[in-house]
Amino acid sequence: MPAPLRKILHVDMDAFYASVEQRDDPALRGKPVVVAWRGARSVVCAASYEARRYGIRSAMPALRAERLCPQAIFVAPDFARYRAVSRQVREIFARHTDLIEPLSLDEAYLDVTVTKSGLPTATATAQAIRAAIREETGLTASAGVAPNKFLAKIASDWRKPDGLYVIPPARVEAFLTPLPVGRLPGVGKVMERRLAALGIATVGDLRGYALAALEQRFGRWGRRLHELARGIDEHPVQPERPTVQVSAEDTFERDLRLDELEPHIRRLAEKTWAAAAREPARIARTVVLKLKTADFHVLTRSLTPPLRPASARQLADIACALRERVDRPADTLYRLVGVGLSGFVDRDAWAAQEDLFDAAR
């Protein structure tokens, strides 16, 4: 008996950080709000829909956002508050399914092929989730419903903000055919130009190319293009996996030398240690120092000490010592530093391993 066709939702909070700020401060409602620190190195974390009308987008340099909209209201990010709202939203998801794959604080995939809530359709589930988000958080979310992940993600953007769009299995081909190929996941500007050189502008054009021809030109990626053009995506929703690394990083107002980084490393070590403490069942063994030079070269140095760091101070000491492994001239300038912890293992397994070492001594 064939497996049932998947029913996938992609739920995306609308202008999430900016919407939280507007919800919590009525004076910001209806205004162009930009969530970002001010400064030459800052980038936009989020922009309200009022700000987006001026062309302001996430990841844009904050200085450019100021030029596009001089009257924009800049608000410093408050990630602790955004995480708290994200947990609320996640709890709403969990009433319907355990198959939740978060992509960030403000979006996730849900497999609702079988639900805990017993609602009759994926569309009804999406409607219930959006209604609960509005009622319990005072915010809006857009959702896409489709037979797979990549279509659900496209659909959630179709009627933003505060929209719902459904792509039933029978309409997949008709929906995809007129779309620009740039809407397919993984097709960036470079690939778009390469496809345009072959006369491929839409998904329908792409569907007209034989698999063998695409594989010959693009290798394994050609097979993926062939599948996407036909609405095929077998990737399952992956529930949240164990943390691989926690880290904190900072971009400086002015570039600094290596010997000037210690206070920044110690401050970031405190943040990283606090983040790792939210994983009580697991411990990290490896310390990572990340640096970015003024000319944008990224360097990482790591160490797994015999005794894992037991405090933020020890973490900072090890991270500071890792600077000695940076083989760059002393006058090299750095624009960014980060401190991370990786190599997470189960705490009980680690304790058992330490007991074995003690017994062997």
Automatic annotation (TrEMBL):
Domain UmuC, residue spans: 8-188
Cofactor: Mg(2+)
GO BP terms, alphabetized: DNA repair; DNA-templated DNA replication; error-prone translesion synthesis; SOS response
Subcellular localization, as worded in the UniProt entry: Cytoplasm
Species of origin: Mizugakiibacter sediminis
Enzyme Commission numbers on file: 2.7.7.7
Binding-site residues, Mg(2+): D12, D106
Protein name: DNA polymerase IV
Active site annotation, chain numbering: E107
Primary gene name: dinB
Assembly with partners or alone: Monomer.
Site residues (Substrate discrimination), renumbered to this chain: Y17
NCBIfam families tied to this protein: PRK02406.1
Keyword terms: Cytoplasm, DNA damage, DNA repair, DNA replication, DNA-binding, DNA-directed DNA polymerase, Magnesium, Metal-binding, Mutator protein, Nucleotidyltransferase, Transferase
HAMAP family per the UniProt record, alphabetical: DNApol_IV
Reactions it catalyzes: DNA(n) + a 2'-deoxyribonucleoside 5'-triphosphate = DNA(n+1) + diphosphate
CC terms in the record's Gene Ontology section: cytosol
Gene Ontology molecular functions: damaged DNA binding; DNA-directed DNA polymerase activity; magnesium ion binding
Entry keyword Acetylation: no
Job description of the protein: Poorly processive, error-prone DNA polymerase involved in untargeted mutagenesis. Copies undamaged DNA at stalled replication forks, which arise in vivo from mismatched or misaligned primer ends. These misaligned primers can be extended by PolIV. Exhibits no 3'-5' exonuclease (proofreading) activity. May be involved in translesional synthesis, in conjunction with the beta clamp from PolIII.
Cofactor note: Binds 2 magnesium ions per subunit.
Matching SUPFAM superfamilies: DNA/RNA polymerases, Lesion bypass DNA polymerase (Y-family), little finger domain
